[in-house]
Amino acid sequence: MLLLRLRLIVLYLCFSIVNSHAEDGRKLWLRYIKVSDQQALNRTIKTTSNHPVAQQAKQELDNYWKSTNLQLTINRKATNLKDGFRIQQNKNGLELIAQHAVGLLYGAYHLLNEQELGRDFSSYQIEEIPSFDIRILNHWDNLDRTVERGYAGYSLWKWEELPIQISPRYEEYARANASIGINATVLNNVNASPQILSSEYLNKVKVLADIFRKYGIKVYLSVNFSSPKVIGGLKDSDPLNKDVQHWWKHKIKEVYQLIPDFGGFLVKANSEGQPGPQDYGRTHADGANMLADEMKPYGGMIMWRAFVYNPTKEDRAKQAYQEFVPLDNQFRDNVIVQIKNGPVDFQPREPFTSLFGAMKNTAQMIEFQITQEYLGFSNHLVYLAPLFKETLDSDTYADGVGSTVAKITDGTLRKVQKSAIAGVANIGEDRNWTGHHFGQANWYAFGRLAWNHQLSSEEIADEWLRLTFSKEKEFVHTMSKLMIDSRETVVNYMMPMGLHHIFAFDHHYGPEPWGDRPSGRADWMPWYYHNANVNGIGFNRTISGSNAVGQYNEPLRTIYNNIDSCPENLLLWFHHVSWNHKMKSQRTLWDELCFYYDQGVQEVREFQRTWDQMEKYVDAERFNAVQSKLKIQSKDAVWWKDACLLYFQTFSRQPIPYSIERPIHELEEMKKIKLPLKHHN
Ligand code: BDP
């Protein structure tokens, strides 16, 4: 009996030791270790500010700062700092200076991260000023807690428990965001339920806003343009109808009574079946301005989405430009047009949306997708900083050379009331927040680039790996390279050379280049995008085709229009190319296509080998989780390669080069695959 007990105790001890090393990812990149009593005695942290956000900054430092004395100062005159901060030496230690309390909070996290990264503070000096004023997450969370395009479990917002019961994750979420400089969040899906504006829900939203405020985060809501009719009982929602305006005025007043620092509304109107001002013969500007006028007295913003397209004969990639450019100059100054990075839809690779820069007198912001709707969900390891940077650094030439998307949107080239950048969140109820442990890196990278778009993808990967996993050089170096490569890898095995939108209908996970629904709209069908036939493959967007190239400024128009100068990684985006076209590699287009798909597969296999060698640096729990996700990714890559090559081969009628791995699937079998994945609207 005694022996058994002893055994049990030993077993329990072993289990707790192993367990203490296991990490489930819940702490994200915030794995700070508390100061000991002795360490706390050796330094003092002072601030004269009683602002709750400044107090929060102090609290974090009290808990984790080990290095030297710290003075936190608010200097109202330091206007150039905006939300940022300066850290400098003073005679007693370090001084952290900010214009606003929130700058102290950002400075506090900066210091704690620097401490984690092993910086020397003996002559430390730095100034950090954010690139964008509003750094906002867009949650596509529904009120029933499903998440549109969400792959990390149900929504964090437990609407049925609010406003009474408060999940500890609300504060953890706010803290994580603040630690990377995110200062705003849209709580609900752009396909918005009108109910979010009911008094019942607003009282729940208020509770979240109260928690987030302490971390400098403002709450925004997506609104349904038909709300006056649906929940207000009005006969319509025409923006020029006085009753409708009155309804919004009162609703907005109610919102601000509950949430005095409410950020504003995000609106998806007249897009994919959502209601909007065009239902009443009005324009996007009429709709946006009506809301903006009612918001104005409170300082609220209207983020109006440009993701609009109709099933017409017109190339989908041209439609946002066509609808919005004529409205330039008509929007109020508290309206900002929110434009997706690419003209079609968050594909593995797209050129930047031609609308950036094209409206000279309208504030514009970029919308990225952090959640991997078209990038293998939370199953594939795809680090998105290179994708984000590729768009931000693209030159639009709108105001001459150097008019990058970043500079068009951040207020450098054109003064805006407030500059902004949005990312569609990949966060859910999963313990590790993002499903895939490496999904956390994309949340992190979005925040870091919103704070400073000059940072390189490598710098961000490096920081994140060290804060999240391990500081071992070998680990950081190897995994940083893998992360950087991962974006091109997914392009290779899914849609190389500018191919796009050849996904399975609706859920967008696997390949379905053959996809067709006789009843569905053409611009949701893969053939609409790849146009494969016996002559070749690709979408002709040149002057002889849809002329989408005409929406780009010179020299891009000419570069894209000409098959010889068009970058090969966008070739099939802009051109319909013959199977025998000679590529720069001297291969034919067909052989090159085979080569890229195969390369994608080989690269994921290499990721598996690399990860396995990292076992000694990573706790078992996270190691195993990533290892099994890589297996899925590897299988999926082969599936993509076989599906696309075998299908396109029916048009090219050419053999798959012998140097390339043979298909292991049958085309007819793959056509039968139907994944039981539901897409919740
Ligand atoms: C597409 C998604 C769809 C979204 C839409 C949007 O498939 O679920 O509602 O974008 O951004 O990418 O409005």
Automatic annotation (TrEMBL):
SUPFAM superfamilies: (Trans)glycosidases, beta-N-acetylhexosaminidase-like domain. Residues 119-433 form the Glycosyl hydrolase family 67 catalytic domain. The keyword Hydrolase applies. Pfam families: Glyco_hydro_67C, Glyco_hydro_67M. Gene3D superfamilies: Alpha-glucuronidase, C-terminal domain (3.90.1330.10), Chitobiase/beta-hexosaminidase domain 2-like (3.30.379.10), Glycosidases (3.20.20.80). It comes from the Bacteria. InterPro entries: A-glucoronidase_C_sf, GH, Glyco_hydro_67_aGlcAse, Glyco_hydro_67_C, Glyco_hydro_67_cat, Hex-like_dom2. Residues 434-658 form the Glycosyl hydrolase family 67 C-terminal domain. Transmembrane segments: none annotated. Keywords: Carbohydrate metabolism, Glycosidase, Hydrolase, Polysaccharide degradation, Xylan degradation. Belongs to the glycosyl hydrolase 67 family. This is Alpha-glucuronidase. It comes from Sphingobacterium bovistauri.
